[in-house]
Specification:
The protein is an alpha/beta fold. The protein has ten helices and 16 strands.
């Protein structure tokens, strides 16, 4: 039996086992995935009877699973005592994360409305992009946040002579909900455990649409959220510097008027009436290429998405991982989708399986 929290997921070139409680994963051949799907709960005798000519391979699979503590053995009459995890996800917050752009921190009424409005609907996570402020204004604003329900706050701040690096570091130490401060337009070769520095100015920031394995999120909550939702877009809002509400920083469509923020019931009804929930529910299983990727339930992919009339989704920006070849951009053998016969656009998805198989065979 496979441990309930260790869940096999199929991919195109290879498959994977998500080890949810340990936050880890194990890449496996597709043959092992099929074996786990077809023979879980069966006896060893039944397994070897079906693979009489592949006993060495099967034994190596079993050794691998035992070594990594992914399976266990039990009596046949005990199989029903080990049910699978229930495929359910629930969040008490209707909006889980809010991003805000502020030209400055001088309009105290506006700042109060932002915090109070989202505080009323239980939002606990914020990302603030601040283009101009003094250290005193930032401390005052942080105090307002501290008095709210916020448990996670990230700051992206444009550096100026009104700010002092040591004071910014102390700000993070004083308010425990602040877990990240990025100082933009400032370079320092000195390491500071409370601050991150970058040369680029805040207004020069552009979204990075690449996927990085170190940012994979492997846990029970993310796994089951990804079964029905897009874990990047789901339950997120962003307020730009013009007080326009959209889904995220990189969204091009404004869908709500600012006035709805100060009225929680209006905000929630406006969200329900808008098209934003389509992105919330654009799960990876409905997105071209992602749907056959073994990493689809752990990947936090921020690329813009487009919906087709049939309810499927695609992106005009290609991911830097090719699941057909199981190669990352920069790895030997990596190829762009168009070069392996895969086309994804508004008209649909075309996959040249024969060409892909020829490329895979040529690597052997």
């Amino acid at each position: 039996m496979v441990f309930a929290e260790c869940i096999p997921v199929s991919g195109y070139r290879r498959s994977i086992i998500y080890d949810l409680p340990r936050g880890d994963y194990f890449l496996i051949p597709n043959g092992l995935f099929e074996l786990l799907q077809n023979f879980e709960g069966k006896t060893k005798e039944e397994l070897f009877n079906c693979y009489q000519n592949e006993k060495e391979t099967i034994n190596s699979y079993i050794d691998f699973l035992i070594k990594n503590d992914l399976i266990f053995f039990c009596d046949e009459d005990e199989v029903s005592l080990f049910p699978k995890l229930t495929n359910q996800w629930y969040s008490p917050q209707y909006i889980e994360s809010v991003g805000c752009q502020f030209k400055n921190l001088k309009n105290h009424k506006y700042l109060d409305e932002v915090i109070a409005g989202f505080n009323k609907i239980g939002c606990k996570s914020y990302v603030f992009f601040i283009y101009e402020c003094s250290i005193d204004e930032l401390y005052l604003f942080s105090e307002k946040i501290h008095q709210s329900k916020a448990t996670s706050v990230k700051f992206y701040i444009q550096y100026s002579e009104l700010l002092y690096v040591n004071d910014l570091a102390q700000l993070k130490e004083k308010f425990e909900e602040i877990d990240f401060i990025q100082v933009c337009g400032y370079y320092s070769d000195q390491k500071n455990e409370n601050l991150n520095f970058q040369k680029e100015n805040l207004y020069e920031l552009v979204p990075d649409y690449k996927t990085y394995p170190e940012l994979f999120r492997i846990d029970i909550n993310t796994f089951f959220e990804a079964q029905e939702h897009n874990v990047y877009y789901n339950r997120r809002l962003f307020i730009d510097s013009n007080k326009q509400l959209k889904n995220t920083f990189n969204s091009k469509i404004d869908f709500l008027e600012w006035e709805s923020v100060s009225n929680p019931s209006k905000l929630l009804s406006s969200i329900d009436e808008s098209g934003i929930k389509k992105l919330w529910n654009a799960k990876k299983d409905k997105i071209d290429i992602c749907s056959i990727c073994e990493f689809r339930y752990m990947c936090i992919d921020n690329r813009p998405l487009n919906e087709r009339l049939d309810g499927t989704w695609y992106s005009n920006i290609e991911c830097n991982y090719n699941p057909f070849l199981a190669k990352w951009e920069g790895q030997q053998g990596y190829m762009k989708l168009k070069d392996i016969g895969v086309i994804s656009n508004e008209t649909g998805l075309i996959i040249n399986h024969d060409k892909i198989q020829q490329i895979i065979n040529s690597e052997k």
